[in-house]
From TrEMBL:
PANTHER family: 3-HYDROXYISOBUTYRATE DEHYDROGENASE-LIKE 1, MITOCHONDRIAL-RELATED
Keywords of this entry: NAD, Oxidoreductase
Source organism per UniProt: Streptomyces phyllanthi
Similarity comment: Belongs to the HIBADH-related family.
Domain 3-hydroxyisobutyrate dehydrogenase-like NAD-binding, first and last residues per copy: 167-287
Protein name: NAD(P)-dependent oxidoreductase
Lineage: Bacteria, Bacillati, Actinomycetota, Actinomycetes, Kitasatosporales
InterPro entries, alphabetized: 6-PGluconate_DH-like_C_sf, 6PGD_dom2, 6PGDH_NADP-bd, HIBADH-like_NADP-bd, HIBADH-related, NAD(P)-bd_dom_sf
Amino acid sequence: MSGHTEVGIAGLGVMGSAIARRLLRRGRAVRVYDIRPEAAAELAQDGATAAGSPARLAASGAVILSLNTADIVEEVVFGHDGVLSAAPDGVLVIDMSSIGPGPTRAFAERAAKLGAGWVDAPLSGGAPGAGRGELTLMLGGEEEHVERALPVLGALASRLTHLGPAGSGQLVKSVNQVLVGCGFAALAEAAALVRAAGLPPRQVLAALSGGRADSALLQEFFVKFADADLSPTGRVGNMVKDLEAARDYARSAGVPLPVTTAVAELHRWLTAAGHGNADNAALMHYYAPLEVRP
């Protein structure tokens, strides 16, 4: 990013923190902000600079967002003391949050009127992928803005695809989440069968590997689900948000999503049962009371 070696990051949850640490390890200066000062202080111990407000991230020239909802993105970027609240000309916002394509297009238009750029760069691969620099990123935005973002994003991802104007990345992320969310539901049902039969999950995985049921999702998550391992890789509540974003777009386009709707309701049940902050493997709670590994 011409003229800028520092990167700002707003949102220091599991994902934002993993992104920050990866960039620090790659030699980038990183300025961080979170509504929880202790989260920024923790990263400061790793070499980041804590910012007292989102506005103070703008000095970095490029600001990555890792936030939960479109409303939060709007407040952090355009609100009082937001990233683009003062002298925003030339600032590039790289939104790695998962929000709908509609709000993203609106945010990009607002940013352009202020002289700022916008790239939506939702991700697949989770915090482990960020830590290894092996994320898959789906990019939307103007060509010149995407080109400016690539030196930073290249440190985080092994696959980057520019799909079109602002909002295109978020739309493809919705497609990704439909496939992942429905895949998780199928994995949970398969794992429930394996648990009921008392079969060893790793041997079952070996038997399925290489066949038509094989996939990256199966390899990474089948044993985790069968073992009811709730170590954090992704939150149930975030999956509800992402599936609802897909359903919102589908309704606007007149596309029925019956399977996605059923899976979204399954995740809503988990949230209502108090598992919204749990890992996606909490789907196993649906099938039987579990002794889970924390």
